[in-house]
Amino acid sequence: MNTSEPMTEAMYYILLALYSPKHGYAIMQEIEKISGGRVKMGPGTLYGVLTRLVKNGLIEMVDSDSRRKIYKITPEGEAVLKAEFERLEKMVCDGKEILANKRQSL
């Protein structure tokens, strides 16, 4: 994945959730917890994004049994997640500056 491409909200939260290895249902629960209940991911979205993240080398399957596949973030996934975090942080700073100036001009 190109680090200059913005990632989807689903990708971002899945990568955050996979800082410790988890299976699909645990990923969904972790995302809901991390987001304070704001983001609830369904299985269709989750497994589609997991497939893409594995293909792009951002996560890897570390264990599998007949029922569950366990995934974790890769070093490349950590680098891409950090770059996305920094991009989002800059966007928030830009917005704060503009909105603060707008309030002062009123």
Task: Give a verbal description of the structure.
This protein is α+β, with helices and mostly antiparallel strands. It has one domain: Arc Repressor Mutant, subunit A, CATH 1.10.10.10. It has four helices and three strands, in the order αβααββα. A three-stranded antiparallel sheet has the order 1-3-2. The protein starts with 8 loop residues before the first helix and ends with a helix. The relative contact order is 0.16.
Taking the alpha carbons of the first and last residues, their distance comes to 43 Å
C-alpha geometry: elongated
Overall average residue pLDDT: 91
Per CATH, the superfamily is: Winged helix-like DNA-binding domain superfamily/Winged helix DNA-binding domain
**Can you count the beta strands?**
3
Evaluate the radius of gyration: 16 Å
Features:
106 residues; alpha+beta; Arc Repressor Mutant, subunit A; 12% strand; elongated
Write the layout of secondary structure elements.
Blueprint: H1 9-17, E1 22-23, H2 24-34, H3 43-55, E2 59-64, E3 69-73, H4 75-105
Antiparallel strand pairs: 1-3, 2-3
Helix pairs in contact: 1-2
